[in-house]
Design a protein that fits this description.
The protein is an alpha/beta fold. About 45% of the residues lie in helices and about 10% in strands. It has three domains: about 100 residues, no CATH class; about 130 residues, Rossmann fold; about 100 residues, 3-Layer(aba) Sandwich (Rossmann fold). The protein has 17 helices and ten strands. Bound molecules: iron/sulfur cluster (2 copies). The site of one iron/sulfur cluster has 14 residues, from helix 1 and helix 3.
């Protein structure tokens, strides 16, 4: 409940509010109420009964957030976590049936195919995937690995990107790593929109798939999947005993154990973009840089690591104009490096930057260049 955040909200009220200059939504919309501090003050007035979810501006304030956590990089108060508070407020808005029309439409569209992309997504044919092995949700099972130690949790954003998916399968094969595959959505888009109750069905199915796979490790390509499985599932009663790793962490281990050798070298002038969930949420900054360091010399943009720009993805479903401007700001951060190629480690960042940078800068996911 929002009132569980009261102490943290009060800390915001007495702060010099440097976070307002960090927030990409505030930078674009230039409204005090959408700054991280504005969101906190709105929450305080709600708890005190001086505002209510009947006010469309209150609802709009909590949906004016891409959950990028950039405010946290500038906030010196340990306890304050604006995106967590925003997500809780969204749950309350949904419970009160006061969510904006665009959010309701998003839920309707999501429910048609159990993904946010408005179409059915299927695992592509791959020589390593047995068509008979359909024991794990809609996932296929790698030939001869009915109980593999590793479950590759593909997630819907990676299922949309066959390049990342096939490159990951090829890399696991190259390292001689047995694996099973699960390809449904982890529930992140619903949870982040406040539809946590609707996400529970997907979470239950994912947990069941992990248990029946017998996997000790789960690897994901999408940092939002990693965060959900690692941090959100346990809080909502879907604890998974297997270790959850982003693919960059797993590759680092394979290389350290001598099971994977990267022989390719590239001299393309390249910049790395830190995805919000991989960096600010999971604190994974070094693994992708260390892997890429074996094949390429990287440039760093001005805004990097915990200060990196959000690509705006978290707002595209319901605030596309603001989202596009946030993307434009992130694109400038890449373009100022004059690099010819941008590499990231998130299927969603790759999709957003590919569209925005078009033929100006080549955009790739880390797994596809190894
Ligand atoms: S989020 Fe942090 S920096 Fe921003 S107003 Fe609150 S306490 Fe201050
Ligand atoms: S999470 Fe990102 S968009 Fe949301 S308030 Fe913080 S800086 Fe702004």
């Amino acid at each position: 409940m929002l009132k569980d955040y009261l102490h943290k909200i009060k800390l915001c009220a007495a702060c010099p509010k440097m976070c307002r200059f960090a927030c990409p939504v505030a930078e674009v919309e230039k409204k005090e109420r959408v700054t991280p501090w504005g969101k906190s003050l709105t929450a305080l007035l709600l708890i005190e009964g001086r505002l209510s979810y009947d006010d469309p501006d209150v609802v709009d304030t909590f949906y004016s957030c891409c959950m990028c956590k950039k405010c946290k990089s500038y906030c010196l108060v340990d306890d304050v976590d604006i995106p967590a508070m925003v997500q809780t407020a969204r749950e309350e808005i949904v419970a009160a049936k006061k969510e904006p029309e665009e959010i309701k439409q998003f839920l309707g569209q999501f429910k048609k195919f159990n993904n946010p992309f408005g179409k059915e997504l299927k695992l592509p044919p791959h020589p390593s995937l047995s068509p008979e092995g359909r024991g794990l949700g809609r996932g296929g099972l790698k030939e001869g690995s009915s109980k593999a130690d590793v479950l590759y949790f593909v997630g819907c954003s990676t299922l949309l990107d066959k390049d990342i998916l096939n490159s990951t399968i090829n890399l696991l094969d190259k390292a001689g790593q047995g694996y099973s595959i699960f390809s449904d959505c982890c529930g992140f888009p619903l949870w982040a929109s406040g539809y946590t109750e609707d996400a529970r069905g997907l979470m239950g199915k994912a947990k069941e798939a992990v248990l029946s796979s017998g996997a000790k490790k789960i690897i994901t390509s999408c940092p939002a999947c990693t965060y959900m499985l690692k941090s959100v599932y346990p809080v909502l009663g879907f604890s998974i005993s297997a270790e959850v790793l982003h693919i960059t962490q797993f590759i680092e281990t394979l290389m350290r154990d001598g099971r994977l050798h990267l022989n390719k070298k590239s001299d393309i002038d390249t910049v790395y973009h830190d995805p919000c969930f991989l960096g600010r949420y999971l604190n994974i900054y070094d693994a992708p840089r260390s892997i890429l360091g074996h094949i390429i010399t990287l440039r760093e943009p001005i805004k990097t690591r915990e200060y990196n720009n959000c690509c705006g993805a978290g707002l595209y479903h319901f605030r596309s104009k603001t989202a596009k401007k946030i993307t434009e700001i992130a694109v400038e951060n890449i373009k100022q490096t004059k690099a010819k190629q941008m590499i990231t480690a998130c299927p969603t960042c790759k999709r957003i930057f590919t569209e925005a940078l078009k033929d100006k800068v080549i955009v790739k996911d880390i797994i596809t260049v190894l």
